[in-house]
User: Fold this.
Amino acid sequence: MITLALSKGRIFDETLPLLAAAGIEVLEDPEKSRKLILPTNQPGVRVVLVRATDVPTYVEYGGADLGVTGKDTLIEHGGQGLYQPLDLQIAQCRMSVAVRADFDYASAVRQGSRLKVATKYTAIAREFFASKGVHVDLIKLYGSMELAPLTGLADAIVDLVSTGSTLKANHLVEVERIMDISSRLVVNQAALKLKQRAIQPLIDAFSKAIINPPVPT
Ligand code: PRT
Ligand code: MG
Assistant:
């Protein structure tokens, strides 16, 4: 049995066409069912639904053989012990710094002010501001980062942006783009060896089905 860990929502939705390319069809709709283990049309393949941030943990410890997870989540988790064969180019967005439209970020940075930065992505934020030589106090949040600058909790946030409409609706502006984000296939290293005959064809099928594969460097 091969177990694939996915999170509900955009990752599940955007992984479905890749699974279809591998001949795998998930037999239940996670938005309608309360089941956490979903069967597929292949008796040897099942999908487990976990929180997006838990996908790397499930795969690292073998609760799932493979998973699909955002680069953001992977960097924060550390990615240790995970084989990462493919950038699937799905669930694309970017990691950015945003502030209130009336906050002068450029001059705060120029003056060497200490910035209060609220984020769920503390590892990415720490590394980014350190590389710029900007001093920051990081405030860890688990959601609704957009609220932090509006309430005076923070000067800036580090968050994911796709269309930009969430920032706009909250009168925030993007002042830095930290990195592009997409989702990757992650594989448990032991499973890759022990279940190679089942897993490798899946990796190959996913690989062929990727739309706009990244240019090799
Ligand atoms: O929602 P939950 O707390 O359960 O977990 P999660 O937010 O970690 O999961 P989910 O499913 O929302 O995101 C899973 C992965 O999708 C992330 O780890 C990213 O790699 C990727 N992804 C792609 C995004 C977005 N686009 C995105 N726009 N994740 C989150 N967002 C959020 C963003 O945080 C912000 O609140 O959408 C809002 C901004 O969207 P726009 O379109 O208004 O700019
Ligand atoms: Mg979310």
About this structure: The chain is about 35% helix and 30% strand. Residues 7, 9-11, 51-53, 70, 72-73, 91, 93, 143, 159-166, 181, 183 surround phosphoribosyl ATP (ligand 1) (CB under 6 Å). Strands lie at 2-6, 37-39, 45-49, 66-70, 82-100, 115-119, 136-140, 156-161, 172-188. The longest strand covers residues 82-100.
